[in-house]
């Protein structure tokens, strides 16, 4: 009998994880409006509007991913968007 399988063994360098730290991310002057909108939303979360902020945040994240896939955002701008997304998610 022959077993047809493979095992891939690699060294693990780092583990990425989401932290609950609120590191302030500020968009730069040349960053697109969607990043500025997320930054503004991160500072305006209340008990009354958290659902609306969450919905807007999800839409903004989709727009960031779409723009990145189309080449309209660079990797740093996408990273800022992800950081802002997770900041809002942790605050909600």
Helices and strands, in N-to-C order?
Answer: HHH
Classify the secondary structure makeup into a structural class.
mainly alpha
Arithmetic mean of pLDDT = 86
Shape: elongated
Provide the β-strand percentage band.
Answer: under 5%
Number of strands: 0
Largest sheet: none
Q: Tell me the Rg in angstroms.
A: 18 Å
With helices defined by DSSP (H or I, 4 residues minimum), what is the helix count? 3
Share of residues in helices? 40-55%
How far apart the termini lie comes to 56 Å
Low-confidence stretches: none
Describe this structure in words.
With 92 residues, the protein is mainly alpha-helical. It is 51% helix and 0% strand. The chain is built from three helices and no strands. It has helices spanning 33-42, 50-69, 75-91. The longest helix has 20 residues, at 50-69. The termini are far apart.
Draw up the topology in text.
Layout: H1 33-42, H2 50-69, H3 75-91
Helix pairs in contact: 1-2, 1-3, 2-3
Give the key terms.
92 residues; mainly alpha; 51% helix; 0% strand; elongated
Summarize the structure.
With 92 residues, the chain is mainly alpha-helical. It has helices at 33-42, 50-69, 75-91.
């Amino acid at each position: 009998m022959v077993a047809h399988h493979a095992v891939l063994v690699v060294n693990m360098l780092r583990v990425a994880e989401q932290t609950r730290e609120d590191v302030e991310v500020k968009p730069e002057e040349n960053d697109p409006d969607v990043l500025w909108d997320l930054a503004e939303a991160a500072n305006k979360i209340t008990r009354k509007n958290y659902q609306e902020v969450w919905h807007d945040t999800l839409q903004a994240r989709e727009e960031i991913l779409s723009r990145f896939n189309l080449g309209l955002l660079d990797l740093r701008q996408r990273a800022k968007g992800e950081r802002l997304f997770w900041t809002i998610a942790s605050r909600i």
